[in-house]
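Blinded run. Sample ID left blank on purpose so nobody reads anything into the name before looking at the predicted structure. Input follows.
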Amino acid sequence: MSVLSELLRDRYIVKALDREKYYAAKDELATNSDLRTFIDDKLGFRVIVNPTLIKLEKIPDRAEPLLGILDFDNKLEYLMFCIMLIFLEEKNAGDQFLLTQLTDFMQVNYAKLIGEDVPEGLSDTLDWTKINDRRSFVKVMKFCAANFLVKVTDGMDDEFIRTSEIEVLYDSTGVSRYFARHFTTNVLSEIDILEIDKAVLEQDDDKYKGTKRRAYRKLLLTPCVTKEMETESIFAYLRDNFSLVEDAFSTHLNCDLQLHKSIAMILEGDDPHFSRKFPENNHLSDITLSLFSIFRSEAAAGTLKPRLNEWLSLSEEQFFGYVMRCKEKNGAFYGKTFRDKKDKELVIELIRYMYSFGFARPGGKGIMISPLAGKLNGKY
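Blinded prediction complete.
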């Protein structure tokens, strides 16, 4: 696997976990000028190389739901994780702390961050007597351990779900300081994530260079680029520079570039670059593909008529009806968990899954289905 593939697939390469991989990546980045040109000029990504780790800062051209942390299910878990990063900011590698120290810190700082105007979906306090708060905390700690932000030295934090009357000893690894996104401009005054995205993009004084980087980033970090008002310049760049872009992705990632009327995307080759790919080896992928087949046949028959740029617009009732048709036709092939789910629960889980891949997004009072649905389909 190439160094670029490893940096794209993994969040970072930590020297303490794999010294051989760390030094191989460090040498490749130092000596391969073509690779650095691809990263620096075409993607505009920053590479962090220090004695602790090597990280490719994979910054999209704008924040999107599909780029969130898949391990987290709600705002509370994101907020807990942010407080966790604040807590770890004062810890050096090897510093130890207790679970109770962390939970006390979280309660105090949660209240400060929430303030009086409590956002929707959150409560005004953290309450460790509530099992849902404890379960979210454990999920966040599992994520921190999996990403080598902390190590469990003594105890089992799983037990915190059962009772808050336990103690666990953790080690800080020092990696947490490099987890969050590093901004090269002052964004403290920005209160809107879209304004932050705009400020980051406008760092490119050359408008052509900015468009080029947006094109490469969108192709790399999203399942597909759909043609819309904000991506008109990207499609124009791809049309004018198709061979150049295709050659760059083929050379560095062994990916094929596909450019259609309303979507553009790269298809991965044999070398696995991405931590998540579609279709996945699970029932939700199968259900999604079979649902796309229904959309495709309905569009071919004229029952479903795509809107501008080939997006499908469905009301919630229409989408529910199509999922039920899909279940009636293919339900016998579903796993037991999905066969036994209530219809409403199945629809909600499927919508979330499609949102996570960018196959759908909210649209008015309904759901918008990406034109990518017309390029993917499957049957049992």
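Unblinding after everyone has recorded impressions. The mean pLDDT is 89.
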